[in-house]
Specification:
225 residues; alpha/beta; Rossmann fold; 8-stranded mixed sheet; 11 strands; 32% helix
Length: 225
């Protein structure tokens, strides 16, 4: 199948993980579905050799790589090694799916507009870790998930989409995290598909969907009736 004179080769995704890989699994499932992902997951790279996500990838027949941080003196050296490894796979898109390392500015600049992250909060609220606990401690009435392009600012890149999750009176961290994850697994394949189909792009620092600039808070995902 040809698109606009380009070769038929599928667009390639590399997914970076550190742990369980449940969002990776959502992407694998989407790739295997009738709708597809708009491309293929070329490789999964983990900084943790025992990450369960590696097993998920292997079961799906996806190449895996382990790049442990302990083998490198500092973040700069690690990121240079990661860039060399990514270069082997020539990804059109790099997806952070529970990758627990902060990437250096050099890395982020190299993949500007081709680097996505998912974060369990309604950004710009609750950047960083322990978002479910912080939401509960603050007594917030709603929580959620955000997907954004990655920039040099931690959890601060331009927003693409958000979904809200009400906080119930009897919620604890586990129950709240579980409901947020349901939204994560729903949204990440949608956004990756948008990107791989050419519908989503970053123009400078402004995300556009189907040629239209997105609002600062991104698209608000609404459940279909």
């Amino acid at each position: 199948m040809m698109h606009g004179g380009e070769p038929a080769e599928e667009r390639r995704v590399v997914v970076l993980i550190s742990g369980n890989g449940s969002n990776l699994q959502a992407l694998i499932d989407a790739q295997a579905s009738e709708t597809g992902l708009g491309g293929q997951i070329a490789a999964v790279i983990s900084d943790q050799p025992d990450a369960y996500g590696l097993e998920r990838a292997q079961q799906a027949g996806i190449a895996t790589e382990v790049l442990p941080a302990s083998s490198y003196k500092n973040r700069q050296e690690y990121d240079q090694a990661l860039l060399r490894l990514l270069n082997d796979y020539q990804p059109d898109l790099v997806v952070l799916a529970g990758f627990m390392r902060i990437l250096s500015p050099d890395f982020v600049i190299r993949y500007h507009g081709k680097l996505l992250n998912i974060h369990p909060s309604l950004l710009p609220k609750y950047k960083g870790l322990h978002t479910h606990r912080r939401v509960l401690e603050a007594g917030d009435g709603e929580h959620g998930v955000s997907i954004h392009f990655v920039t040099e600012e931690l959890d601060g890149g331009p927003l693409i989409i958000q979904a809200r999750v009400p906080v119930e009176v009897d919620d604890d961290e586990t129950s709240l995290a579980r409901r947020v994850q349901v939204k994560e697994h729903l949204l990440y394949p949608i956004v990756v598909r948008w990107f791989l189909q050419g519908r989503l792009q970053l123009q400078g620092n402004q995300p556009e969907l189907d040629g239209q600039p997105l609002p600062k808070s991104g698209v608000l995902y609404q459940e279909e009736a």
